[in-house]
């Protein structure tokens, strides 16, 4: 191509960029998504009124990227956001993320399995279920020294949240172990770390005792949609999960609840789970997004690995519908490259588990994670001890849909 034709091409390109539609719409697009306070409602923004950008309809991700707390999401709305063109979803997940969080701050958390294996439940993904033959063998609960040493090491390595997991259905008949756990919570909270537990189902009294001990959050995942759940777990119901979550919330402990993708569920199931989470009386403080780690011996051992684009869709959709929630890029991260993880952070994830092990499976190497923070310019996120970060405030109630929430 000659120099003259190149020049004429670039002049035409500049003219096209300067045309009213291109400039106006790109500016409007950005403004509407990044300054929610500027318009009384998102529908009044010129961009949304125009309903078209570059001759295309505004994407559902863009239309919903206002960053305001809403508790009345419809499944159809979440489905449309989830199915937005991936570049749109990623961009608007990133925009919403910036409305409430420092986008460079990623919390480092540490997991410790304090009681491994031998679990009576039949969760088809789990290597700790005694229903399946896996490399995980049942062990006794760790003693106080082991747990507190691990917490101190986690703090020294930069973690600001310490999560203890036990392979139990519930705490029935475990009075003395529970008493010890209450002691662990007190000691670890005194180290100035957030403390999280995942011990199975709780009753009101146990939730109250954990609250009193200073527990920051309780993890109890929905795992998947109500419809798909019976294909994955038969030994306890979706409603039982929801009951434990309510007890945790009522005790004044932050709720950490999310799920796993890659179990063979459909997009509708993923949307269904996000719908249940985002229409709770207050959004969970924390939503872990796990990609199945298919463990040999479990019924799901042959599942195809989750693609990063599916993680990006889940994370960005969760970020848009629960804008103030910590979105945790959890199990399965070990299978993603550094650029793939960067996409997850861009989409709105702001927490990872560091340390060489999750509960029973290998995790990313600690040094590789520190290197990744350097490469991406990420900084460790400080601990936060606020309760119910996402509890609907008066202003959120007014601005989200005009109706009062429970
Ligand atoms: N027993 C407790 C319970 O089920 O609530 C706590 C421990 S359980 C291991 C915590 C969560 O880890 C599960 O709800 C599930 O979402 C996740 N998980 C377990 N095994 C997994 C796997 N193989 N791949 C991805 N996530 C997994
Ligand atoms: C969660 O949602 N993911 C973490 C935490 N909550 C407890 C656990 C992942 C476990 C992965 C499988 C394993 O290591 O056993
Ligand atoms: Fe047990 Fe929890 Fe594993 Fe289910 S996920 S089998 S309840 S340890």
Percent range for β-strand residues: 5-15%
CATH superfamily of the domain at 105-382: Aldolase class I
| Extended strand count | 12
The CATH topology of the domain at 105-382 is given as TIM Barrel
Q: State the separation between the terminal residues, measured CA to CA.
A: 66 Å
- The CATH class designation of the domain at 105-382 is Alpha Beta
Treating each run of at least 4 consecutive H or I residues as one helix, how many helices?
Answer: 16
Q: In the CATH hierarchy, what is the architecture of the domain at 105-382 at level 2? A: Alpha-Beta Barrel
Q: What are the distinct ligands in this entry?
A: S-adenosylmethionine, 6-(5-methyl-2-OXO-imidazolidin-4-yl)-hexanoic acid, iron/sulfur cluster
Instruction: Flag low-confidence runs.
Output: 1-41, 392-406
- What is the arithmetic mean of pLDDT? 87
SS-based structural class?
alpha/beta
Order of helices and strands: HHHEEHHHEHEHEHEHHEEHEHEHEHEH
The major β-sheet equals:
10 strands, parallel
Report the principal-axis shape.
globular
* Rg for CA atoms: 23 Å
Pfam family, one: Radical_SAM
EC number: 2.8.1.6
Keywords: 2Fe-2S, 4Fe-4S, Biotin biosynthesis, Iron, Iron-sulfur, Metal-binding, S-adenosyl-L-methionine, Transferase
Protein name: biotin synthase
